[in-house]
Each structure stands twice: as structure tokens, then as C-alpha cells.
From TrEMBL:
<dbReference type="InterPro" id="IPR029032">
    <property type="entry name" value="AhpD-like"/>
</dbReference>
<feature type="domain" description="Carboxymuconolactone decarboxylase-like">
    <location>
        <begin position="44"/>
        <end position="119"/>
    </location>
</feature>
<dbReference type="InterPro" id="IPR004675">
    <property type="entry name" value="AhpD_core"/>
</dbReference>
<protein>
    <recommendedName>
        <fullName>Carboxymuconolactone decarboxylase-like domain-containing protein</fullName>
    </recommendedName>
</protein>
<dbReference type="InterPro" id="IPR010195">
    <property type="entry name" value="Uncharacterised_peroxidase-rel"/>
</dbReference>
<dbReference type="InterPro" id="IPR003779">
    <property type="entry name" value="CMD-like"/>
</dbReference>
<dbReference type="Pfam" id="PF02627">
    <property type="entry name" value="CMD"/>
</dbReference>
Length: 181
């Protein structure tokens, strides 16, 4: 049950409206998480700016795979439904790749290195080992790419924490619990 009331369009703060309208236009509907998040124009617009900037980082399959891995570690069921949907429909990842990403892996070797690294970053709170950094670099990622992966982990964690705290009503198709995959 949601811990924050959903807003209808006329209740959205004016400073959040343009950002929310852009998401609604791009997605085709307004996700419950966004109407809840829009209640704080400062937090919502800061997140939207970060999301927009990081949408240029890496490729969509890698970004969505990282989102799935991070959301799994953080136990965010709302984000798992969103990332599973976008991974399938936008990144064109097959179901087995979505499951692998949730487990911190990918069939593509380069993407696998990025997803494993992202998972280690979130599991260790950034206290990675030199060998972890070497592995991601050996997979062909630059230091700038590594910074982008860390930023993606942080951004996905922000929405994971937001959704775990406020538990907005899910409006994407349900996914199986991690124990059954």
C-alpha cells in the first residue's frame, strides 16, 4: 500500500509540471512514482536532470541491465517492474537477459563486466577492490565510463530508496520475486 498520496494533474507543483509533462509525453502515461516524486520540485527536477544526462552514458542495454542489478540488490520491487518493462520494450533484452541482469550478469562479455562492477559498487557501498577496477578497465571501459557506471548506481539507488520509502502503487507489469528466478 502506498505511503504517499497520488497527485492528480492539478495538484502537481508548478515547478514540477513541465518535467512531469515531458515524462508523460515520452512514456505515454504518468507513472505513479513520478507523480509522487513531483511533490518535491527540487528533488524531482534534480533527479530528472541526472537521468537526462546519464541517458547519454553507455548504451541502453547496459544502462537497463545496471538498473536491474542495482534494483535487485536494493530490493526495490517498483523499480524492478519498471526496469524489466523498459529492458524488454526499449532495450529489446530477452527475458533470460533480464533475469541475468537481476543476478548481476549479462551474456555479452563487455556488458557483463559493467553489470558485475555496478553490482559490486552497490553491494560494497563503493568499497571495491583494485582487482574490480582492473577487471572493468580490462573489459574496455575508460575511467570516464567507470564514473558513469558509479553515477548510474547512485541514480538508480535514489529511485530505489524513494520507492522503498514511499511504496507507490505499481503501474507496470509485476515481476517474479528474486527467489523464484
Amino acid at each position: 500500500m502506498s505511503r504517499i498520496p497520488a497527485l492528480n494533474p492539478e495538484q502537481v507543483p508548478a515547478a514540477s509540471k513541465a518535467t512531469l509533462d515531458t515524462f508523460t509525453k515520452n512514456i505515454g502515461f504518468t507513472p505513479n512514482m513520478m507523480t509522487a516524486f513531483a511533490q518535491s520540485p527540487i528533488a524531482f527536477n534534480a533527479w530528472a536532470t541526472l537521468l537526462g544526462s546519464l541517458s547519454k552514458a553507455l548504451d541502453v542495454k547496459t544502462r537497463d541491465s545496471i538498473g536491474l542489478a542495482v534494483s535487485e540488490v536494493n530490493g526495490c520491487n517498483y523499480c524492478l517492474t519498471v526496469h524489466s518493462f523498459t529492458a524488454q520494450h526499449m532495450a529489446q533484452l530477452p527475458a533470460d537477459e533480464i533475469i541475468l541482469a537481476r543476478k548481476g550478469h549479462a551474456t555479452d562479455a563487455r556488458r557483463d563486466a559493467a553489470v558485475q562492477f555496478a553490482r559490486k559498487v552497490i553491494e560494497t557501498r563503493g568499497q571495491i577492490k583494485d582487482a574490480d577496477l582492473k577487471a572493468i578497465r580490462d573489459a574496455g571501459y575508460t575511467d570516464a565510463n567507470v564514473m558513469e557506471i558509479v553515477a548510474l548506481v547512485a541514480m538508480y539507488s535514489l529511485t530505489n530508496f524513494f520507492n522503498n520509502v514511499f511504496d507507490p502503487e505499481k503501474d507496470f507489469p509485476a515481476v517474479a520475486p528474486a527467489g523464484s528466478i
